């Protein structure tokens, strides 16, 4: 076997062979052929398999390959621009529930991370996990301060295993890039992007920071509760958060029995995701029912922050522009926004793309708002994205997946729930909120402050320029070919500049003169100051006349 140098590490080689064996067993032996036999293989070989049947096989293969591939699959399930929709549906089903590690091993990790015995930190620690996933296990406990908490502990050696798998995946991606002819994807780029997200999940302090930001963002929203992070009990491999007593939103019958208003919960859950996207630029990337509780006082509480999406101000504005263009049935604007996003490849057939986008927009126009489903919309949009190989930002596709999940949760609580109707109400409220003078001044305070500083300095700048003019310190030195026409134009241009400066100086000087109490007055104002204004006005009119009348006649 002619392996790359990186695979000559004994453990990595063993894992590499194991991966190829599992791929072959599950019907993906052609990938092994690409990796081992060499040569250039046309991309159509990857398309020759029945994708409808392959979806389930891909999911089961990833589950068999272990935590790295499960997580990679889950992350890929947000990338409708890369994966066909039917396979996306299968990837979304990836199960991350695994047999729990024995407590002795977990205890050793916990005590090593916290640098002390469990009894030094916890009054009580339940040895039976309440959840067990591929990366970590979650336990109930009570810290020394008497607070009930949940403690997430990373499994032993999971970091080493994932890092080894990432090395293998990066090298496999490199080989695929070299040996697959006409591949529309950059496999290395995709693996790099997914690896970064996965490595972030291995650092529990990152998840803690996410939770902290959510807590700050929702501080003023009475219907949302975000649990507190206990940093004294948190490390890269241990995360300790406040225990939230509540009922999972997937337990509809119990919520009804307890008397909760499910319509209200569904609406507030959708409102919260719009706030996250529009106001905060940080949104929950995996708001499935298992990650959402309803507290005893009816608040919505998120309890897992491993996957979040980020949208900077420009991305949010582009998304709003895109939705606005869709709403106005403006295909040309849709194309322009997509181009600004860097989504359209140079070889994209714009005519076909416009046609497909028109079909989507007609679907929105001909369907009552309450009947528009984000899930259906996402399927239509992502099918078009995949067909034309558009390159959407990861945050955008993750956002669509989050909205689809929130819609699914909302409809499981209230069959009449419409996320589109909530979106309409949210946009209306946000619009009214943003047209207030206070909001405008607040958002533009920095620019306003800079403008005020510039205006304050303007009289001194003008005075400096006037002083230099008087002393003949301002000189324009240009070497040109002997051309009377150019010399004439240059003289006119310089004259306009000088006259404009003089007019500005007269305005400033006249303003100062008007403040003097003495002297001859006209209509109650200092005559000299008024005279200065008149002269400045005449000079400005002359400049405008030269620019807009004479110059246009010449043209």
Automatic annotation (TrEMBL):
Pathway: Cofactor biosynthesis; ubiquinone biosynthesis [regulation]. The chain crosses the membrane at residues 497-516, 522-545. Keywords: Cell inner membrane, Cell membrane, Membrane, Transmembrane, Transmembrane helix, Ubiquinone biosynthesis. The keyword Thylakoid does not apply. GO terms for biological process: ubiquinone biosynthetic process. Coiled coil: none annotated. Residues 124-452 form the Protein kinase domain. GO terms for molecular function: ATP binding; protein kinase activity. Belongs to the protein kinase superfamily. ADCK protein kinase family. This is 2-polyprenylphenol 6-hydroxylase.
């Amino acid at each position: 076997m002619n392996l790359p140098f990186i695979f000559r590490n004994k453990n990595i080689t063993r894992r590499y062979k194991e991966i190829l064996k599992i791929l072959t067993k599950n019907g993906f032996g052609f990938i092994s052929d690409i990796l081992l036999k060499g040569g250039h293989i046309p991309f159509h070989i990857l398309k020759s398999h029945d994708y409808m049947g392959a979806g389930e096989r891909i999911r089961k293969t990833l589950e068999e390959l272990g935590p790295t591939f499960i997580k990679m699959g889950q992350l890929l399930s947000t990338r409708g621009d890369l994966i066909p929709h039917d396979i996306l549906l299968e990837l979304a089903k990836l199960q991350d529930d695994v047999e729990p590690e024995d407590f002795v091993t977990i205890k050793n990790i916990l005590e090593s991370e916290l640098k002390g015995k469990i009894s030094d930190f916890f009054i009580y620690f339940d040895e039976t996990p309440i959840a067990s996933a591929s990366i970590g296990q979650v336990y109930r406990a009570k810290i020394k301060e008497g607070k009930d908490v949940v403690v997430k502990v990373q499994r032993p050696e999971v970091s080493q295993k994932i890092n080894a798998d990432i090395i293998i995946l990066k090298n496999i991606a490199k080989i695929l890039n070299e040996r697959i002819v006409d591949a529309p994807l950059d496999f290395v780029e995709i693996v790099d992007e997914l690896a970064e997200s996965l490595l972030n999940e291995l650092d529990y302090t990152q998840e803690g920071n996410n939770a902290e930001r959510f807590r700050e963002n929702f501080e003023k929203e009475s219907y949302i509760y975000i649990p507190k992070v206990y940093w004294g009990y948190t490390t890269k491999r241990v995360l300790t958060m406040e225990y939230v007593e509540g009922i999972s939103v997937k337990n509809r019958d119990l919520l009804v029995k307890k008397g909760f208003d499910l319509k209200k919960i569904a609406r507030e859950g959708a409102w919260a995701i719009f706030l996250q996207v529009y106001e905060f630029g940080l949104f929950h990337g995996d708001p499935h029912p298992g990650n959402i509780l309803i507290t005893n006082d009816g608040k919505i509480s998120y309890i897992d922050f491993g996957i979040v999406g980020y949208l900077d101000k420009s991305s949010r504005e582009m998304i709003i522009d895109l939705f606005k263009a869709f709403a106005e049935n403006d295909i040309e604007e849709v194309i322009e926004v997509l181009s600004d996003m860097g989504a359209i490849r140079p070889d994209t057939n714009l005519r076909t793309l416009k046609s497909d986008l028109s079909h989507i927009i007609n679907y929105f126009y001909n369907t009552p708002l309450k009947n528009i489903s984000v899930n259906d919309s996402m399927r239509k949009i992502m099918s078009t994205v995949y067909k034309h190989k558009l390159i959407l930002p990861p945050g955008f596709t993750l956002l669509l997946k989050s909205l689809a999940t929130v819609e699914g949760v909302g409809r499981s609580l209230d069959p009449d729930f419409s996320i589109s109707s909530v979106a309409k109400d949210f946009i209306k409220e946000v619009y009214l909120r943003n047209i207030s003078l206070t909001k405008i001044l607040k958002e533009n305070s920095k620019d306003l402050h800079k403008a005020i500083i510039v205006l304050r300095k303007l009289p001194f700048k003008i005075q400096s320029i006037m002083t230099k003019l008087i002393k003949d310190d301002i000189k324009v030195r240009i070497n040109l070919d002997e051309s009377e026409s150019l010399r004439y134009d240059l003289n006119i241009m310089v004259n306009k500049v000088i006259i404009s400066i003089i007019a500005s100086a007269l305005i400033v000087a006249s303003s100062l003169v008007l403040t003097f109490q003495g002297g001859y007055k006209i209509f109650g104002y200092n005559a000299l100051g008024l005279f200065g204004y008149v002269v400045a006005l005449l000079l400005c009119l002359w400049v405008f006349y030269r620019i807009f009348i004479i110059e246009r006649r010449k043209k």
